Amino acid sequence: MSSWFKRKEKGIQTATDQKKDTPKGLWYKSPTGKIVESDELAKNFYVSPEDDYHVRIGSKEYFEILFDDNKFTELDVKLSSKDPLKFEDTKKYVDRLKAAEAKTGLKDAVRTAVGKSMGKNVVICCMDFSFIGGSMGSVVGEKIARGIDHAIKKKLPFVMISKSGGARMMEAALSLMQLAKTSAKLAQLAEAGIPYISLCTDPTTGGTTASYAMLGDINISEPGALIGFAGPRVVKEATGKELPEGFQTAEFLQEHGFLDFIVHRRDLKKKINLYIDLIENNPVRQ
């Protein structure tokens, strides 16, 4: 009786042309080892259903979540970085920019858009970590500043979604100037009496944390997000002390008064609009 398969000396073998590859992106494995189908993950707001792990997402996904029917008008679409310092380390800065743009399809590490969220027009700026680590360069600062200007002109609430590794070293002092620039613009927004909601996502670090990320009328975060200025190793070396458990997590920061609320991604749209209504003293919507 012949077997339905044939064995060879080195085990069962399949001809190369008969092998089938599993499509990439079909499954997602969370850091805790939980596996979920990518389609199911998207339907669950990119949160792993078994362990509630919030997967890092970018502006495309946040716009889908926050804007009604994913309809919005993007502002300053073509704004892109230059290389005023002619910076070069292991690679030329201009080459890094070209590579990042080709890889991500983005012009820089932030996108700004205006549209309706729960029927109310809002301006949303969202950072993309996939573009050079979400680093804050001149274009990031300029697009945020212009987004704030648009919010002031149209009297619209402003939402900032931060996800950044900090300042962009390839732009040196020009990058650091964006801290003051964006902070000054937010002061103008406050003077105009317009709500500003800041959402810190994983990770929010460096100059981003030291400026617009922590200047909201209400500062919120997603569960488990890393939020801080310098990394834990640098803080430990500077202070000479052991760091407490959970240091620089969203939960630790909320406990110590740096955050107002932690919001699950499935509730993000509803909560942001609730906070805007509270600031504007509008009746609470059902």
UniProtKB/TrEMBL annotation:
Annotated pathway: Lipid metabolism; malonyl-CoA biosynthesis; malonyl-CoA from acetyl-CoA: step 1/1
Protein EC: 2.1.3.15
Alphabetical keyword list: ATP-binding, Cytoplasm, Fatty acid biosynthesis, Fatty acid metabolism, Ligase, Lipid biosynthesis, Lipid metabolism, Nucleotide-binding, Transferase
Keyword Lipid metabolism: yes
HAMAP family hit by this protein: AcetylCoA_CT_beta
UniProt-recorded name of the protein: Acetyl-coenzyme A carboxylase carboxyl transferase subunit beta
Family named by the database record: Belongs to the AccD/PCCB family.
Domain CoA carboxyltransferase N-terminal: start-end pairs: 25-286
Protein species of origin: Arenibacter aquaticus
Subunit structure comment from the entry: Acetyl-CoA carboxylase is a heterohexamer composed of biotin carboxyl carrier protein (AccB), biotin carboxylase (AccC) and two subunits each of ACCase subunit alpha (AccA) and ACCase subunit beta (AccD).
Record region (Disordered): 1-23
Transferase keyword on record: yes
